[in-house]
Design goal:
alpha+beta; Cathepsin D, subunit A, domain 1; two-stranded antiparallel sheet; globular
Length: 139
């Protein structure tokens, strides 16, 4: 299977809360549309420093991640960020990668949105068993 990319909208969740409280107008919400690698092997979502700066996502903590070559790297974690794809959305934190490194969607937001990587079409799709809304496993 080749690499699968999807058009994803990332939104500063703090801004959405400020809209809900009538502190800012909806057009002031910071958001960005990007083409992300749908990586089911990555646990968390990973954005780069440029995306983090643009969305102005607050620092949450530092966490370590094991890379494909078994090295352990410490990253800043920021969030929360709202992730939107098709008729789905999720809220999660994200690792921050250096510079303009390619962002990764990761398993956590993909599971929450109930989306799948279609291997033949090589694209991200909503779960065909639940086309109108996400269904999450509770066990």
């Amino acid at each position: 299977m080749g690499l699968v990319y999807a058009d994803i909208e990332l939104i500063n969740s703090g801004d959405l809360e400020m809209v809900r409280r009538n502190v800012i107008d909806p057009e002031e919400v910071r958001h960005i549309n990007i083409n992300m690698l749908a990586d089911s092997g990555a646990y968390m979502m990973a954005i780069n420093e440029n995306i983090q700066e643009y969305l102005d996502l607050p620092f949450v903590e530092k966490r370590k991640a094991v890379m494909a070559d078994a090295t352990v790297v410490e990253y800043d974690v920021v969030g929360p960020v709202q992730v939107r794809f098709a008729n789905r959305k999720a809220v999660c934190n994200a690792f921050v990668l250096k510079g303009d490194t390619e962002p990764l969607l990761g398993a956590i937001p993909m599971e929450e949105m109930d989306v799948l990587i279609h291997p033949l079409r090589q694209e991200l799709i909503v779960n065909p068993e639940h086309p109108n809304y996400a269904v999450l496993k509770m066990k």
